[in-house]
Amino acid sequence: MSVSSPSRPIRIGSRKSQLALVQTYWVQETLQKHFPDRSFEVHTMSTQGDKILDVALAKIGDKGLFTKELELGMLNQETDFAVHSLKDLPTNLPEGLMLGCITERENPADALVVHSNHQDKQLDTLPAGAVIGTSSLRRLAQLRHHFPHLAFKDVRGNLNTRLAKLDAGEYDALILAAAGLQRLGFSDRIHQVIPTEISLYAVGQGALGIECREGDTEVLSLLKVLEHRPTAQRCLAERAFLRELEGGCQVPIGVNTRFEADQLVITGLVASLDGQKLIKDTVSGLPATAEQLGLELAQRLRQQGAQEILEAIFAEVRQG
Ligand code: DPM
């Protein structure tokens, strides 16, 4: 291989799902605008998570379910970087790869989407036994805690498939990320933005994470135009928190981060699947110490029994 010439095309790896493509095309367009003399190509790939649609996510349990194939593409020099929903990117990356940039976060909240029968209802007024579709243990545990009158059922598939199942009456409501609905043009289906007191969001939710080869200075310098520093500080704190608790993507762990004056504030939660136990705490400090804040928060939750909850869940999920 020759030394990379300034004009070589930059190859972007992406999943094929509609949401992934909307996100990747946005990255491609933004870069193209900033670097009109360069060319940016999108290379799509299917990941394990796209192929296995009939098994509950938590039971597959594999970290990197939506990222592994994209990572191999970069390691094999077939692509130069990959665009992910940051919350699907494991906190420990394979040797040779790094998180090159974090983009500006959209609304990180979860949202309630209801069947047309329930247009006049909110989470607290849905009838007893109403069936809520979610595959997220985090959403399940928190909503069970606050709304024990509701029933929960697993739902898989892309956003269109899920909305179709809802409209067909298989569910009374769904819980989905507001950001995903917005990016796909379904903002009008957001019936209630779920307040953070009820559902803390997933680590990295609403932001995109761009993964590239470690030390690829050419790509890293291009990615700088996409970086959003405040989002990155928040998400680095969140990811340090999750990493320290050794949680994968499918764990009942939620966060909320925000800036108050010059302080970065992070609230984190670990919940038992039955919604009975919620362990929650908050720490704050200077944004420059973001990762330490996440770590400190994890240690505090562990002192309050978070590890026991997580171990019980790992055992339960493994047994199926
Ligand atoms: C992860 C979770 C889910 C996705 C678990 C969680 C939701 C699974 C489900 C880690 N990834 O949030 O507790 O409810 O079935 C996913 C979505 C987005 C990225 C869709 C969603 C869009 C929002 C974003 C799936 N990954 O959360 O409704 O880009 O942050």
β-strand number? 13
Order of helices and strands: EHEHHHEEEEHEHEHEEHHEEEHH
| Distinct ligands, ions and cofactors found in the model | ligand DPM
Helix/strand-derived class? alpha/beta
Could you characterize the architecture of this molecule?
With 320 residues, the protein is an alpha/beta fold. The chain has 3 domains: 1-105 and 207-227, D-Maltodextrin-Binding Protein, domain 2 (3-Layer(aba) Sandwich), CATH 3.40.190; 110-193, Periplasmic binding protein-like II (D-Maltodextrin-Binding Protein, domain 2, 3-Layer(aba) Sandwich), CATH 3.40.190.10; 229-320, 2-Layer Sandwich (Double Stranded RNA Binding Domain), CATH 3.30.160. Helix content is 34%, strand content 22%. It is built from 11 helices and 13 strands. It has helices at 18-34, 48-51, 57-60, 68-75, 137-146, 159-167, 178-183, 217-223, 229-244, 290-303, 306-319; strands at residues 10-15, 40-45, 81-85, 97-102, 110-114, 131-133, 151-153, 173-177, 192-193, 208-213, 253-260, 263-271, 278-285. The strands form 3 sheets. Strands 2-1-3-10-4 form a 5-stranded mixed beta sheet, with helices on both faces. It has a 5-stranded mixed beta sheet with strand order 7-6-8-5-9, sandwiched between helices. The protein has a 3-stranded antiparallel beta sheet with strand order 11-12-13. The N and C termini lie far apart (48 Å). The relative contact order is 0.15. The model has no long low-confidence stretch (mean pLDDT 92). Ligand DPM binds next to helix 5, strand 8 and helix 7.
Helix and strand arrangement:
Elements: E1 10-15, H1 18-34, E2 40-45, H2 48-51, H3 57-60, H4 68-75, E3 81-85, E4 97-102, E5 110-114, E6 131-133, H5 137-146, E7 151-153, H6 159-167, E8 173-177, H7 178-183, E9 192-193, E10 208-213, H8 217-223, H9 229-244, E11 253-260, E12 263-271, E13 278-285, H10 290-303, H11 306-319
Parallel strand pairs: 1-2, 1-3, 6-7, 6-8
Antiparallel strand pairs: 3-10, 4-10, 5-8, 5-9, 11-12, 12-13
Helix pairs in contact: 9-10
The structure holds ligand DPM.
Ligand DPM binds at residues 85, 87-88, 134-136, 138-139, 176-177, 179-180, 202, 205-206, 249.
